[in-house]
């Protein structure tokens, strides 16, 4: 407990899911230090505002965090809560990830009004997704389907499905579960069918590295296993250039004292893909990420990434 910490401001996006995530962290911190007053600083980000183009074209998922980082740099907020899959592989100078919370279900979820899974959709059916990673993996397994961009917050995406704009949509299972919408999931895509994004389903807390008081205070939120897995996954992305706009999946699991990391780089149309995996001890997360990234490069990931360059 840090006795002189009496007031804390949490920067968050305004979406219902982002607010849920910030409230979750708020409740954890209030339980940790009763009497602490916590305020949510809800901000609109460029990623939330630019809905007419794909994220890959307008700057990637980092657009969801820049305004939150600016609020911390300018003293308007103390910490920020993020979905880790939206956090760029390399943080700006002066910022650190103080904690990664225990992970929710990392799988992608199939949501439809009429069908049970992707295989049940008829040829030409329209599937919505905001992710090049999901698009590539769906296209590889189900080339008969038409995949169209799907932007907006979670509620907006579901509303578009309900209006009949899509036969099905693919979303992160964790977000649906956190908002009490698990019943909307027709089926979960296995990790083999759709390798998750680096950090998917994990929440992260970011702050300025100079705030030693906050780093100490936030430590109890950190889940050692989830943190190690997310570090390994993010290292794959970082080693391959750190872009938020490439079709890359990375997913680590821990069994006993071993960590297994699987990763994928694919072309958006799913025609070209390379996969790699490796194992290590839990305390060698970053080294494992580097190793798996090197394997991907040996197998042709560099050529795929070069073809995606603007």
- CATH fourth-tier homologous superfamily of the largest domain: Periplasmic binding protein-like II
Straight-line distance between termini: 49 Å
Fraction in helix: 25-40%
Tell me the number of strands.
Answer: 13
Number of helices: 11
The largest sheet is: 5 strands, mixed
Assembly state here?
A: single chain
How many domains in all? Answer: 3
Q: What is the CATH fold-level name of the largest domain?
A: D-Maltodextrin-Binding Protein, domain 2
The main sheet orders its strands as 2-1-3-10-4
How big a fraction of the residues is strand?
A: 15-25%
The low-confidence parts are none
What is the average of the pLDDT values?
A: 93
The helix-and-strand class reads alpha/beta
What sort of overall outline do the alpha carbons produce when their principal axes are compared? globular
By CATH, the architecture of the largest domain is named 3-Layer(aba) Sandwich
Element pattern in H and E: EHEHHHEEEEHEHEHEEHHEEEHH
Q: Could you characterize the architecture of this molecule?
A:
With 310 residues, the chain is of the alpha/beta class. The chain is built from eleven helices and 13 strands. The protein has helices at residues 16-32, 46-49, 55-58, 66-73, 132-141, 154-162, 173-178, 212-218, 224-239, 285-298, 301-308, and strands spanning 7-13, 37-43, 79-83, 95-100, 108-111, 126-129, 146-149, 168-172, 187-188, 203-208, 248-255, 258-266, 273-281. β1, α1 and β2 (37-43) form a beta-alpha-beta unit. The longest helix has 17 residues, at 16-32. The termini are far apart. The model has no long low-confidence stretch (mean pLDDT 93).
């Amino acid at each position: 407990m840090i006795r002189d910490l009496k007031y804390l401001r949490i920067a968050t996006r305004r979406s219902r899911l982002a607010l849920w995530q910030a409230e979750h962290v708020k409740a954890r911190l209030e339980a940790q230090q009763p009497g602490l007053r916590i305020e949510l600083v809800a901000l609109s980000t460029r990623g939330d505002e630019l809905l007419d183009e794909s994220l890959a074209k307008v700057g990637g998922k980092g657009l969801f965090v820049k305004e939150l980082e600016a609020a911390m740099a300018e003293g308007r907020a103390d910490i920020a809560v993020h979905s880790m899959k939206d956090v760029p592989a390399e943080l700006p100078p002066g910022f650190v990830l103080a904690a990664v919370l225990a992970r929710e279900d990392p799988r992608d979820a199939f949501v439809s009004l009429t069908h049970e899974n992707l295989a049940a959709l008829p040829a030409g059916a329209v599937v919505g997704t905001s992710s090049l990673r999901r698009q590539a993996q769906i296209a590889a397994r189900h080339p008969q389907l038409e995949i169209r961009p799907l932007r907006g917050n979670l509620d907006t995406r579901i509303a578009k499905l309900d209006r009949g704009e899509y036969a099905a949509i693919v979303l992160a299972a964790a977000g649906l579960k956190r908002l009490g919408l698990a019943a909307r999931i027709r089926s979960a895509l296995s990790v083999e069918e759709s390798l998750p994004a680096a950090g998917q389903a994990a929440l992260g807390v970011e702050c300025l590295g100079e705030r030693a008081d906050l780093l100490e205070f936030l430590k109890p939120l950190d889940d050692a296993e989830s943190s190690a897995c997310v570090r390994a996954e993010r290292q794959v992305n970082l080693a391959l250039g750190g872009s938020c706009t490439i079709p890359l999946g990375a997913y680590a699991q821990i069994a006993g004292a071993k960590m297994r990391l699987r990763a994928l780089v694919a072309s958006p149309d799913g025609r070209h893909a390379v996969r790699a995996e490796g194992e290590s001890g839990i305390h060698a997360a970053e080294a494992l990420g580097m190793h798996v990234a090197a394997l991907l490069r040996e197998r042709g990931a560099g050529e795929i990434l070069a073809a995606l360059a603007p």
